[in-house]
Design a protein that fits this description.
Blueprint lengths: L1 H28 L6 H12 L46 E9 L13 H18 L3 E7 L6 E8 L2 H13 L1 H9 L4 E9 L8
Antiparallel strand pairs: 1-3, 1-4, 2-3
Length: 203
């Protein structure tokens, strides 16, 4: 009887030890014992969905606070290397096609208001001018006739670096802030970064 209790106690001790070890490992893996800085980095990485911002640095170190070297900007414009550039013009500009569709499900939420008419007013009353003053060449703006709540526009830059610099200047312009607040239209956005083909009339 005593031997049976001793054996039972020995097995129970092993089980408890294994469970405790698993819990400790899980707590380390889950970040319980990480520093506040590491936990903040984990949260930021999760919020970004592990995706790098355009032209920015990719998260590194599995969200544990380490930061790798800055990633080079995504290619766009002249001299695209490798297979991606096989059919592109070596002297192409960097083109960006943007499609803005009014999201009616968010109208009235927070400061969101207006629709496609207000969006056109925003561009007409100064957004195009702010782009141009920021070094962004606006080539065309279109009203989508098949989807009336969609505005499409095409802009061009010398290269990807000029694109990033142009958008930084645009976003810092007080006129843009005023226009956005005046016409705070909720949108879903599609963006296409493009280089012209070697046979394209437009480069």
């Amino acid at each position: 009887m005593t031997k049976r209790f001793a054996l039972s106690g020995f097995v129970s001790g092993i089980v408890v030890g294994v469970v405790a070890t698993v819990l400790v490992i899980g707590m380390f893996a889950g970040g319980v014992f990480h520093t506040p800085e590491a936990r903040a980095a984990q949260a930021a990485t999760a919020a970004q969905g592990q995706a790098a911002p355009q032209g920015g640095a990719a998260p590194a170190g599995g969200g544990r606070g380490q930061r790798g070297p800055a990633a080079p900007p995504a290619p766009c414009g002249p001299n695209i290397a490798g297979d991606l550039g096989a059919n592109t013009a070596r002297d192409s500009r960097c083109f960006e096609l943007r499609m803005y569709t009014v999201d009616h499900s968010r109208v009235g939420q927070g400061n969101f208001k207006g629709g496609i008419m207000e969006l056109h007013k925003r561009f007409r009353e100064g957004e195009v001018k702010v782009f141009q003053d920021s070094g962004v060449e606006v080539l065309a703006n279109w009203q989508n006739l098949d989807e009336p709540d969609t505005l499409i526009y095409l802009v061009a830059y010398k290269d990807r670096a000029a694109r990033d610099a142009g958008w930084a200047k645009f976003n810092a312009d007080q006129r843009w802030t005023d226009l956005r607040n005046k016409y705070f239209v909720p949108l879903t956005t599609k963006v296409y970064m493009m280089s012209a083909t070697d046979y394209s009339p437009l480069k």
